[in-house]
Amino acid sequence: MSRIVGEMFATTHTKNHLGSALAAVANYQSDVSPVTTKVLDSGQVQLGWIGWQTQVFAQKDQTVVLLDGHIYNDADLCESTKEHRAPHYLIDLYHQRGFPKMLEALNGDFVLIIIDEASGNCYISRDRFGVKPLYYFEAPSRITFASRCASFSGLGIELIPDPEYIGRFAGSHYRYIDNHPTRSPYTAIKQLPAGHYIRLRIDSYGNPVILETAKWWSLDPTQLYSGSPIDKFSLAEQYRALLCESVTLRLKKAHLPVFTLSGGMDSSSVLACAVRQTGRKHDAISSVYVDQTYDERSEIRSMLAPCVENWKAQVIGTPDIFNLIRKMIDSHDEPVATATWLSHYLLCETAANQGYRSLFGGLGGDELNAGEYEHYFYYFADLKLSGHHDLLNSEIAAWEKLHDHPIYKKNREIAEHEITERVDIARPGHCLPEKRRLFRYLDAINQEYFSDSYTPTMDHPYKTCLANRTFQDLYFETVPCCLRAEDRQANIFGMDNFLPFLDYRVAEFMFRMPGSLKIEHGLSKILLREAMRDVLPEETRTRAKKTGWNAPAHNWFSGSGLEQVRDLVSSKVFRDRNIYVLPRLEQLFKDHQDIVTSGAARENHMMFIWQLTNLELWLRSIPEIQKV
């Protein structure tokens, strides 16, 4: 658990003191001790660090290294460089291979900074999936970088909200909030994308410049499984070995770990692999609800006896939504994407108060294993485009049988409609923005902020729709906002966050696999299910139902909760922003209350109301951020 801040400044620029920037992110919500800070000067670069772990600075051979995060294969790298001090071995590796090749040798979750005093270069890199955050600010006299945006305020940099970001957050679905990986919620602050690095130096005029921004790693769409016939059982063994090793490597870095546990396959697989590798049960913690809509206690129960030493059920009823959102924004520096993260916030608080310092989770499992309900449509499209009509018919029938829902219906007509809406049939492999989701609330937003001219980035590196859809989720939609929330909330409660599915070897392996090893007979996560045979309890391994990790915010934003939202909307400051169409808001509020009160089998508006509340409370918090 740590945060960093740094600055390269012009020879004529007065050096800033980084203490205020570090203090801006020291707003811990639990007893985190001992917290230490360190500031290091190297020529025209200043680096700062705050955290409770061992400080990860090193200096050697006119080179400085700062590591924020973990390198999981450090023992092997120490052996190869003959330098057994961490992180000094990174300096040797840098001089042996150069910066990009050095990064390729690392298996970890990190932001890594190298200052080469001899060449004058400063390199800043982010891990392959962006588990660790990094933002930066450019000005003629300085380039500033930090783990959190609040640190920029501590150095006198004004945080001005980006109007386009405001529009996307207000009017669109949470999946599109992170569609621009180089941007942040603030106009002047940029984000370093996952798997990228930047190279800085002082130019001949004495000013800092970014010489290079480059991608150092990505999934390779040409490396696909080509075995025929497919040997599912051998591949399952390989998958199990990779996932188990990923868990083992992270356990070696973890201090006082606890495992988040839901009713699904992903978190359960991570925990079960830990039990298999260590030969003992482990502690687990779960968010459960008084409301039964998303409560997973019955699904979790099958994991308890074989895998759990101590289980803490964080029971959530009707929380103080507004107070908790304010606290979350204080640690996020931005609005929070979904109500699920309020439950996670309370879970982190409980885990920290119980004395845990490392949190394991299953994030990434859905993207690697095609675990989202919508992934079926892209697999169906691939079958249709490849001419496998009999298999398509049987898969649609199995999908309907296993997953039909009173609100989210499943049948052949819906499947065919979704294929045409989500896929460009004329270009195999090309996925389209899901417009119903993207523009559902378009009429509630002032078009100066958000309109139907918005076109999200859709990347298509693979030849199949399913692979491209899950790639999109991994880098542009579901995962980035989840990574940010997990990082912020674990950190604010003094914990490290470990995500074994986001080991690059696990991801490379699963993105090589065909869709038939991810969806079969109406079930998703097929290869993971086979890999977890004799690892997971059979009830968990074979379960078809997916409740989904969600929160009953439909109830939180009804009755008195909805009245609080109405009070927010009726305020002069809200109305003067002119972001929303006020009459339409009242229609949506009334419709939401009617759905909740009547129990009607219709989709409610809890996600929209959550985003509205977060956006407004964030905008109100910005003057406070600026005071830091």
3D architecture notes:
This protein has a six-stranded antiparallel beta sheet. A six-stranded antiparallel beta sheet has the order 4-5-6-7-11-12. 42% of the residues lie in helices and 17% in strands. α7 (232-253) runs antiparallel to α19, α13 runs antiparallel to α14 (389-403) and α13 runs antiparallel to α17 (465-475). It is of the alpha+beta class. The radius of gyration is 24 Å and the shape is globular. It has 26 helices and 19 strands.
**What's the assembly state of these chains?**
single chain
Tally of DSSP helical segments: 26
Strand segment count: 19
Question: How are the strands of the biggest sheet laid out side by side?
Answer: 2-3-1-9-8-10
Q: What is the terminal separation in angstroms?
A: 22 Å
Shape, principal axes of CA atoms = globular
Work out the helicity level. 40-55%
Q: Classify the beta-strand content into a percent band.
A: 15-25%
Which residue ranges are poorly predicted, with pLDDT under 50 across at least 5 consecutive positions?
Answer: none
Main beta-sheet strand count, sense and barrel state = 6 strands, antiparallel
